[in-house]
Amino acid sequence: MKTARLAEWMDRHSGPMFVLPAVLLILAFSIFPLVISAWLALSQFRLGIGGYEIRFVGLLNFKKLLTGSQQFHFLGTFAEIPLLGWLIVALVFGALAVAARRYATFGRASVIGVAGRLISFPLIGALAVLFATTLGGQIGSLSTTLFYVIVGVTLQFLVGTGLAFLCAQNIRGRSFFRLVFFVPLMVTPVGTAYTFRMLADTTVGPFAPILRGLGLGNFAWASDPWTARLVIVLGDSWQWIPFIFIVMLAAFESQPRDQVEAAQVDGASTFQIFRDITWPSVAPVAATVVLIRVIEAFKIVDLPNVLTNGGPGIATESLTLHAFIEWRALNLGGSAAIAYLLLFVATVLCVSFVNMVVVPMRRSRQ
Amino acid sequence: MRMFEPKALGTMAPATKLVVYGILGLWTLIVLFPLYWVLITSFKLPIHVFDGPNYLPFIDFLPSLHAWRYIFLDLGRDTFRPYGNSLIVAATSTALAVTAGTLAAYALSRIEFRPRLLSIGVFLLVMSAAIFAVAHSGADWRIAAASGVALFVLAARATRRLPSPQLGNAEILFWMISQRILPPVVAVVPIYVMLQQVGLLDTRSALVLTYTTVNLPIVVWLMYDFFISIPRELEESAAIDGASRFRIFREIVLPLAKPGLVATALLVFILAWNEYLLALFLSTVKAQTIPLLVAAQNATRGPQWWYMSVLITIMILPVIVLTIVLQRFIAKGLLLGALKG
Do A19 and B99 touch (CB under 8 A)? Predict the structure, then answer.
C-alpha cells in the first residue's frame, strides 16, 4: 500500500526527478566552483608562515594581464602592423559589416539580439586588431589560443569533411576506412603529444633523413615560434579530424539518395549536385560539429605542454597552459583571472557562433 | 578505354576512382604511421632509439622485450593500479553521465518546465553566502550547506506569490550544454579545495564525480537531439493505457534510443579514459590514472620513449576493441538527431 503511494508520488513528480541528478551535479561541480573561482580571481594568494592567506585585491589580477606586467604574456608585445595583419583586420571588419547589415535588413531584430551583437562584434573586432598589432612583435597566449582554434578547426573541418565525402561515395572497403580513420581519436592527447615529439625529432625521428635530404638537417622547428605552433596544430588535427570525419560521414550517408539520382539522370555535374543537394542537407550537421570542435579547441593544453612546454619562450602557450603555469607558481589569483578571461572570450565567440551560424542554418532547412 | 568517363550513372570514372583510392590510402598511412612508430619504439632498446631512425624490426634493429618486461614485471603493480583506476573511473563516470544526462535530456524533450527566475536568483544568493561563510569565516561545510538549503526552501515559499519571469526548457537546455564551454582550468582549483574539504582528494570517487559532470553536457546535447527525433505516438498510447513515466522511459524510449546511447557512451568513455588535466590536479598516487603514468615517463633523464610507447599501446588497445565491437552503432548514433533535424 505504502509503496504504491510512493510510486504514485514519484510518478507525479517524475519531471523534476528526471532532471534533478544532472542539475545537482552541474551545480556542485560547475556553478559553485565558478563562484569560488570568481572570488579567487579578485584576490591574491600568498604563502606565509604556517599557512596561507587570501587577500581581496579587486581587479588587480585583471589589470596586470591587460595593461600591467603580464601584458606581454597575455596580450603580447605590440609592434607595427605587417601586411598580413592589415589583411586580417580588413577581412574581419568586412565580415562584421556584412553581418551587421544583414541583421539590420533581413533579420528578426530583437533587443537581446542587438545587445548580444553590441558585445560580440566589438570583441571580435578587438581580437582581430590585437592579433594584427602583436603579429609583428610577439603574440600572447590569447592570440595563440585563437590561432589554434581558428586554423586548427578550419583545417580539421576541411580535411575531415573531404575524407567523409570521398568515403561516402560508392567505393569498396568503406567500413575498413571508417574504422581506421577513427583510431587517432582513441589515443590519449598526452600520448599523441609524445608521439608527435618522437615523429618531429630532427635527428632520430623517422623524417630526419628526408629533412637532411632537403638540406634542412639543422632546422629546429621547436625554436621558431610559427613552426612550433604549426606542429601543435598538426598534432591536434591528427587527433580530431576523425571526430569530424565520423559525424560528417553519417551526414553524407543520410542525404536524400533519390534526389541525387534524379539530378544525375538530368545530367547535373558532380559539383552542381554537391552545391545544390548535398551541401544544403548536411550544412546543419556541419555547423553543429564545428561548434563542438570550437568549444573543445579553446581548452587545448596537453599538446603545447608536452610538445614544446610552451616554448620557445611563451610562443606556444595556450590560455589553459598559461593558467596552469601561473597555478604551478602558486599565483592562484592570476591563474583564475586568466581562466575567467578565457571563459569570457570562449563564451562570447561560441554563443555568437550558435546564434549567427548554427541556428539560422537549422532554421533555413525546416 | 575511356579513362575519364563513368561506366554507368552513379559510378566513378576509372581515373577518378584511382585518385579517390590514392587519397584514402594516403590518409590511412598518415593515421597508421604514428601508431606504427609507437609500436616499434616499444620494442626498441634505448640505443636503437638514439642511433638514428630505425624503421623495420629484425632488419634495422633486433626487437627487445625489455620495455614490456619493465612495465609489466618490474613496475608490475604500479602499472596495473593506474590501469585499473582508469578503467573503473572511465566506466563508472560514463555510466553515471549517460544515466543522468539521458534522464535529463528525455525530460527536457517531453515535459515542460517553468522554473522561476526569482527562485533561481534566491538560490544563487543563498549558496554564495554559504560558500562565503565556509571559505572566509571557516564555517563547517556541512552546516553551511544544510542551512543554505533550509534557507532557500523558506525563501522560495515566501516569494512564491511574487510575480517573476519564468524560464523555459530551451533555457535549461542551453544552460546545461553551455557548461561544456567552461574550460576545466576555471573550475579545477575550487574543485580541488572542495574535495580537500570533504576528504575526497586523490580518490577514484573524486575523479568519477568530476568526469561525470564534465561529460554530462555532451550526453544531454546528443541525447536531446536524439529524443526529439523519436516519434511520440507510442509513448502517448502507453500513457493512456496507464503506464508510468518511468516505465514508458524504460520499456519504450530506451530501446528506441539504443544506437544513440551506445555511440554517446563510447564517445564519453573515450573522453574520460584519455582525460589528463583534471587527473593531474585531483590525483597524486592512489587514484593516478594511465595518462598521468604516460606523462610520468618523461623523467629527469629525459623522456623514456620505450616505456612510454608500451603504455600508449596498452592504452589504445581496449578502446580499439570496444570500438570494433560497437562499430555499427557509431555512424548511426552520433548526432542522428541533428541529421534528422
Answer: no
Q: How far is CA A79 from CA A76, A84, A136, B180, in A?
A: 10, 13, 5, 36
Eight-class DSSP state of B5 = S
Mutate one of B109, B177, B181 to test the A interface: name it (highest A CB count within 10 A).
Answer: B181
With beta carbons less than 8 A apart as the criterion, state whether A142 and A319 touch: yes
- A247 contact partners, CB below 8 Å, separation of at least 6: A285, A289, B334, B335
User: How far A82 CA lies from chain B's nearest CA (Å)?
Assistant: 32
pTM for the model: 0.89
What is the least distance, in Å, from the CA of B316 to any CA of chain A? 6
Q: Are A148 and B273 in contact (CB under 8 A)?
A: no
Structure confidence by residue, pLDDT tens digits, A240-294:
999 999 888 888 887 777 888 888 888 888 888 888 888 888 888 898 889 989 9
Return the C-alpha cell found at B34: 604514428
Q: Is the dihedral of CA A308, A296, B178, A291 positive or negative?
A: positive
Nearest CB among A36, A170, A246 relative to B131 is that of A36
Helix (H/G/I), strand (E/B), else coil: A77? strand
For residues B159-171, one letter each, b for 16 or more C-beta atoms within 10 angstroms of the residue's C-beta and e for the rest, the string is eeeeebeebebee
Each residue's pLDDT tens digit, B127-186: 888 877 777 777 777 888 888 888 888 888 888 788 888 888 888 888 888 888 888 888
| Nearest-by-CA chain A residue for B292 | A190
Partners of residue A56 on adjacent β-strands: A43
Q: What does residue A43 show for φ and ψ, rounded to 5 degrees?
A: -135, 170
CB contacts, 8 Å: B331 with chain A: 178, 246, 249-250, 253
Q: So what's the ipTM on this one?
A: 0.87
Q: DSSP H helical segments within A1-110, as ranges?
A: 2-12, 14-26, 32-41, 60-66, 71-74, 83-105
